[in-house]
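Sanity check

After download, print the first record. It should look like this:
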Amino acid sequence: MIAIIDYGAGNLRSVVNAISRLGYAAKVTSTPHEMLAAQAAILPGVGAAADTMVNLQTLGLVSPIRRFIAEGRPFLGICIGLQILFSGTEEGGWHECLGIIPGIVRRLPQGLKIPHMGWNQVRQRIHHPIFDGIPDEANFYFVHSYYVEPEDRSIVVGETEYGASICSVIAKDNLIATQFHPEKSGELGLKIYDNFIKIALGVEASRLQHN
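Expected structure tokens:
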């Protein structure tokens, strides 16, 4: 089972629809027990990282998410689900996040249209299985005002130009996260989800397919 973590943000239905369209079973959950019972987890999100952290704390999900990732379980973060993996965010002052990835979430450079909203290219810095079947510099859909700045640049597998070269995809062991929204990115976005599930579940993926 693939858990889609519900912490009160919007956009969950489009993620569920994307996973269902691929023929896999997913369960929306806001409980630690159900999330920890899953074979893989997806944390989508819109809004502010600080608000997200408050909601996750209220639901008792902060420690379980850290545990899930530390145990080597497959985890996909989307947009805010990417940003809260980092040490902290500058959005609305300084706020601590999950601290799983050393680095800071910063505001996009001045002089740009903010939020960065619409289609933009993702340049593949490293060939990673998350990009299987996806051409380099393919377009994906972004909606964000902040971006992540990892201390360890080796985890950056995708970059996007928007006033500067910003990190748009990270991958580290079991952990993958994107700044863009695959569920809003057409067929190539579906391919991102499909690749993640295949990476995550391997031969078990076929057991989750609907007959």
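If your output differs, re-run the checksum step. Summary of this record's structure: Residues 168 and 179 are 5 Å apart (CA to CA).
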